[in-house]
Design brief:
Shape: globular
Number of strands: 6
Radius of gyration: 15 Å
Order of helices and strands: HEHEHHHEEEEH
Oligomer: single chain
Number of helices: 6
Length: 151
Amino acid sequence: MRLFILVAALALSACVTGEHSPEMTNADVSGIESGNASSSGNSQTTSRAPNDARKAFKPLTSKTLIGQNKDRLLRLLGAPSFKRRDPPAEIWRYRDQSCLLDLYLYPPKNSGTAAPMEVAFIEARTPRGPSAPVAKCLSAIRKKFIAKATS
């Protein structure tokens, strides 16, 4: 059954495109890593990164993304190429030539369904299906987002 769901999700992912979203500044990423970032999204963002943005952005880790809400994900990685609601979860997929990155969002434990959803689990695989290193895939997705934001 799980295999069927994965195959169906993969087939549907080719039909959905994402939108461009504002990126997060280096200060915002630092705030997330130190635990000081607010989930309200009130941090400063720009619609276009400076020319040296590729040097200024810190790399992300899966540990950094766990617990982040939808607004933060949009600032860090942009819009996903595919979204699926499967209550109580929501799955966001990011696509690169070398990999697919799936982020599984759930409401925080003991908070009910009205609470903002957060990343609870991250999974990466190659376009053909086998598992891929999450860190390498996340780096590729992040670089793609920064390149798009600075072009």
